[in-house]
Structures are given as C-alpha cells and as structure tokens.
Amino acid sequence: LSPPGPYSRGKSARYFNATTQQDRVDLPPSPETGEPEHHEWRWVTFDAAYDLGSPRVRQIVQWARQVIGT
User: Fold this and answer.
1) What is the pLDDT of residue 31?
2) Nearest alpha-carbon partner for 1 in 44, 62, 48
3) Which of 40, 56, 49, 52 shows the shortest CA–CA distance to 17?
4) What is the Cα–Cα distance from 21 to 60, expressed in whole angstroms?
5) How far apart are alpha carbons 40 and 49 in whole angstroms?
6) Alpha-carbon distance 2 to 4, whole Å?
C-alpha cells in the first residue's frame, strides 16, 4: 500500500506486510549511495505502531491491521 501522492520533497513510500521467523533485522547501506537509509527498527504491536506514527503512517497501520487482523 502506498499513501496518496508524494511527501517531503517528492519522496514516496511503499509498505509491505510480511512475516519472519527471525528476531534480527539487517539494514545495510543503500547500494546506490553507500549511505544508510534507516537508522533503527523495532518490533511493535499495532497499537504501539499507531501511537508512534504520523497521521500519514497511521492510516497505513490501520490498513495493515485490517489486512492481517489482530
């Protein structure tokens, strides 16, 4: 799911629902720039994700909760 229209200087975001059996997440630098694009991550509940998110991200969290369930 993508939020409608670009945000923050023309950026766009894509969100994917996925599952994993791994606790560790590897966030390597961008192959194009060699710079990190992400500086942290955490596993959270839907409620915590909603509370942490901006209004734009909150609509994505609500959508994901409907698709995945609770």
Assistant:
1) 92
2) 62
3) 49
4) 23
5) 14
6) 6
CA angle 30, 21, 23 (to 5 degrees): 60
pLDDT at 12: 74
Q: Kindly list the distances between the CA atom of residue 47 and the CA atoms of 4, 10, 27, 55, in Å, as whole numbers in the listed order.
A: 23, 29, 24, 14
Residue 11 β-bridge partners: 7
Q: How far is residue 48 from each of residues 10, 11, 20, 57, measured CA to CA in Å?
A: 28, 25, 19, 12
pTM of the predicted structure, to 2 decimals: 0.62
Distance (Å, whole) CA 7 – CA 25: 26
